[in-house]
């Protein structure tokens, strides 16, 4: 199977391996980002060069058909976006061989991204954000006011994370702040439906990740106490790092301990049963191994050479 790289050099896929293979995989990712950026740029140019006007009907979700008034007759872009000529959706659909609805959604997302989410658009332009995430945010904020969309855009930019959880949280907070009526009985604050634990390996420098947990107050309070106790113990044992650093390291200590010991008290019990299916749940196998570090002086070693010790299977030691 032959492919062509970014420099238009042909290569045989079956002959690839090692660093060259990974370089081409990375090159493919960059090419995909640039291709998506080109699509958005061209679509936006199509919009700005074909505006709606006094004698040109604007593109709408219902194409202005009789009986499609209301939400279906709304213009493509959200509040603050320019009007686009109706024929643009037909032309884009034909050029891209997509349905009219797909063309409308692409144009609407493009307009919202440029005019309502400028900071998100800048990250997308710099090849730092995937197209599907940028468009997901555009769709989630489409029905909100321009002020709300800009607030959400700034909130995500300052937070530095565009994970699905971060975007959903920002949209919910922005909706609660500017459109509380859209939430009905919802306060806009995280609830049980938002419980999750998320690790982001892209949010820090090399070797540093972030952990965000949303859960029951009592459970998280107990876990915080466990982490703090472990960090305090590490300090008493001579760890000179700050309390915050020790608390972060304590997460790994607790995880290692659970992998090798029975902190949950379930290892000596019968296999747990799934209440929904009535079947046994197979416990996750740990591949961590215990290591014993013994610090001895030369004198200790010399003394041990003159004696030996045995440990019986029951755990009692006998020396001779």
Q: Could you describe the 3D structure shown?
A:
This protein folds into two domains: 2-186, no CATH class; 190-268, no CATH class. Helix content is 47%, strand content 7%. The protein contains ten helices and six strands, in the order ββαααααααββαααββ. It has helices at residues 18-48, 87-96, 100-115, 118-125, 131-141, 146-159, 164-178, 217-236, 243-260, 298-305, and strands at residues 2-4, 10-12, 196-200, 210-214, 309-311, 317-319. It has a two-stranded antiparallel sheet with strand order 1-2. A two-stranded antiparallel ribbon has the order 3-4. Strands 5-6 form a two-stranded antiparallel sheet. It starts with a strand and ends with a strand. Residues 313-320 have low confidence and may be disordered.
* Alpha-carbon distance between the two ends: 70 Å
Q: Looking at the structure, what is the overall shape?
A: elongated
Give the amount of beta strand, in percent: 5-15%
- Count of DSSP H/I helices: 10
The total of beta strands comes to: 6
Element pattern in H and E = EEHHHHHHHEEHHHEE
